[in-house]
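Here is one chain, start to finish.
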Amino acid sequence: MGGTRRRPRSGSPGPWPPTTWTSWSTPGSWTPASSGAPGGAGPGAGRTAKLYLRSATPVEVALPARDFELIAGLLAYAVEADPSGGSRAALQRAARALGAQVGAGGRDHATVRSLLAERGYEPYEDSGVLRLRNCPFGRLAETHRELVCHANLAFMEGLLQGHRRGGPRAVLAPRPGRCCVAFV
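Its structure:
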């Protein structure tokens, strides 16, 4: 066979490629060499599963390099520097309108949850409150917390716009290491 495996004749049961064949000509006559578990069989056989944990340091890759944080920071500084408050009001309106646009497809609890998950918020239930494990704007929020959290709240309110009465409402509920918005 020259070191390469060939598929047995059609009609042979079993997964491909097998670990060891006892016969190439008899359909169904193969046995695994080893499953990796102590004793070679049973639940948990094979390589130990790896456990991955979230990094405290975000990792992003873009080719060619992009710096969206720079422009976001510049815009945030410009809005905060506007003494009239007109820029903040415009940001709130824009965030609410974009939220309404994103949420236009459906507004039941499951849909809102999936929309949030698609955008990286990582929603989870906590004693009847829908909380958000991740803030997609985390690094910008570190330096412009009030601006970012209020814009995020306006986005969430827009997302829920038109939701039936008695449905969840978005509120500011900051917690360390979590998004500042929750749904009650």
